[in-house]
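Might you be able to check the backbone structure tokens below? Thank you kindly.
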Amino acid sequence: MHPVTLAPNQPADRFYRGGERIAAFRDGARLPAPDASALLRTPEDWVGSCTTLFGERELGLSRLPDGRLLREAVEADPVAWLGAAHVQRYGADVGLLVKLLDAGERLPVHVHPDVPFAREHLGLAHGKTEAWIVLAPCRVGLGFTRDVSREELDRWVGEQDVAGMLGAMHHLEVSAGDAVLVPAGTAHAIGAGALVVELQEPTDLSILMEWQDFAIDGPRDGHLGLGFPTALGAVDRRASSADDVRALVQARAGTRGELLPGGAAFFRADRLGAGDAWPAGFAVVVVTHGVGRLVGHGSGEPGGGVEPVEVTVGQTLLVPAAWGDVTVEDAGDAEPVELVLCRPPLP
């Protein structure tokens, strides 16, 4: 068991534009300016995914270089991938989905259900609290500035009153390096030009409040098959103060170590560099800057440890629990390495 470098896993023909900046990031190239004329509709790269798109049987699942689905590999040897403590508490459920997301246009206003809603109405163990580790600055809408009645919410959606929705939301400018927590139930809209590492509960549950001018049939596909009278019950219609919303930016650029303390019940994220380490366990690594190496310890092989794994900006990797504790090192005179470490919640 050793780290696996992942190829892109970008479902095609999504309902919003994007993908050019993911390609540039993965190539280690300078990010291009957002281009409103771009036509790519591959705005999401599902990294280390054991989760399918809503309603699909396989689309969205990651494949290992040997051709196996990651989900099948984990189910076949969960302790090696996830660790004994994780398996004892969660079984073979990885409990995490990581994406690269490139908003080639502003995303529609939408919301994700929480665990109780998903359990009651969809029979699922996970909702979709999520978080964004920002790689390119953007503007985001997040939560309501005032209480919103159910009648007003229904009217916004039924009439597609986008100005009304956006006008009742908080709007924040976020910078590269910021980490933003988005609790389930919070109405939100990521602005054009965003490139983020997105951590989330392992589902694809989105309820659309807005679909006008997007390539999707909202009345048919925007409510998870529940109908809007039920689906819109997932929306948190309460007012949030400006301080409440600013507190969702859990870490700022330059923060090393833990980035999302408020999301620890759902996932963990850390920004690491040379000299940092993490204990054995399943991890998705996104290399955001520079060149370096990962060194595993306690693999169980004679003498312990294995050959270090070289990493460079734009790579995404899976690190199995069986590789042991991991330390991060720089690589000679190259630009110092920086990475985002994404992990499931603690067992």
